[in-house]
Amino acid sequence: MTNTPVAAGLPRYQDAVRRFRIEDEIARLHGDPASGISAYVECCGRYAGQDRLALRAISAGGDLREYTFDDLADISGRAGNLLKGLGVRPGDVVAGMLPRIPELVALILGAWRVGAVYQPLFTAFGPKAIEHRLSYSKAKLVVTNPANRAKLDEVVNRPRTATILGAGDTLPDGDIDFRAALAAASADCEPVMRKGSDLFMMMSTSGTTGHPKGVPVPLSALLAFGVYMRDAIGLRSDDVFWNIADPGWAYGLYYAITGPLQLGIATTFHEGAFNAKSTYDIIERLGVTSLAGSPTAYRLLMAEGAEAAARVKGKLRVVSSAGEPLNPEVIRWFDAHLAAPIHDHYGQTENRMMVNNHHGLVHAVRAGSAGFAMLGYRMVVLDEAGNELGPNQPGVLAVDIARSPLRWFDGYTRRRRRESPAATIAPATRWNMSRTARSPSSAGPTTSSPRPATASVPSTSKAR
Question: Domain spanning 35-224+247-258: which superfamily?
Fold first, then answer.
C-alpha cells in the first residue's frame, strides 16, 4: 500500500532536500550556537509579551488550566531564582521525577534559564534505576512529588530534594517545599547564554542492551528538534497539539515540551493515566488536531472499538507515531474510523528522529515503512565491514556523520567520565550505526527491521 499525499502549499521532499542549508536553520533560532544561546529563550522568552498560549494542562481530576508564554516566563523565572539560591550554577544538573503538571515545565525552563542541565526521571522507575541515573549525572537537586518521594529514601548519595506538596501533604524532613519556595522567589531572572556545545539535557538509554547510559544533549540539538516538529510532525500555528508520550523519556521531553514550545505553539498535558476514554474525551474537548504517541497507545484506542472513536472521527488532521514499528493494521484502522493519516517515524535517544514519513513534506508513503531521511541527515545501509550497500540489500542502518549536519551525539556519559560511543560508531568514525534495515532503492521509503523490507533514496542534506 503506497500513496503520495497531496497537500496544497506543502513542499516536496526532494525539493526541500536540495534547498536545505544549516545556516537557514540557525537563522530560525533567536540565539546563535556559536556566540550564545539559551533553551529558555528559544522555548519561552522569545514569545513572552505576545499574549500567546503555551500550555493546556488538564489535572488528574479533569480541571483545565491554560498558561501563556508570559505565565511560563514568570514561573520559570521564580524557579530559576530558587535554583540559584540553592547553589545551582551553569552546567549543573537538576533532575525532575514528576507527572505531567505545570510545575514540571516551570522546573525545566527554570533550569535552562540559569544555564543548568535538566535530567528526566521516569515516575515508574524504582530506587535502583533512579540511583544509577543520578550516579552519572551528579545532579545537585531532584524535584519530585509525594507519590514518588519515598523511593528517594532508598537512593544512596541522594542529592538535595524538593517536593511539590498537594493539599494535606506533609513535607519530609530536610526537603524544600517547592511550591512555597517558588511563590516566595522573584520572577526577575536574567537568562544565562551558553554555547551550542554546552549541555541542556541529560538523558539515558532504556537499558535494554545493558546498564542505561547517560546521553548528553547539547543546545545545538535544538536545530534538529525544530526540523522534526516542522517537517515530520508538520506542526502548524493553528494546530491544537498533544503528544501523549511521557516527558520522563526522550520522545516526550524532546517533542511534547521542547519542540512545540520552540516553535511557539502550545502543548498539552494530561496528568491522569492513559486510557482510551480519556484520550477521546480530551481530543473532543480541546479540539486536538495533531496527535503524537506510540503504536501501543494507538492499539489501545483501536481496542476500544469503532463506536468509541466515532465522536472524534475527522477531528484529527494528522497523527504521528514513534517508539516501535507501526503496523499496517493500525494505519488502516485510523483511516477507516478516525479519518486521520497516521505516519511512522524512527529515531533514537542518541540521535533522535532520523527517518520519517513526513506530514509537512510531500513524498510517497508506504505502509510498514519508516519513511525518508529527515533533512539534515544522510542515512545509509552498511554491510558487516562498514561498506555502503546497493539497492534492496539487508544490512545495518547508519548515519553518515560527515554529511549529517543536524546530528549531535558524540558519546555517552557514565558516572564521571565521558565515553566514546564505540559500540555505535563504525571504523574511521564515518558512520553512526542504528539498526537492521534494507538498503535504499529508488522506489520508495527506507524500512528497518522488523518492518517490511522497502527502502528509499537517502537524504543528502549537506552543510553549506
Answer: ANL, N-terminal domain (3.40.50.12780)
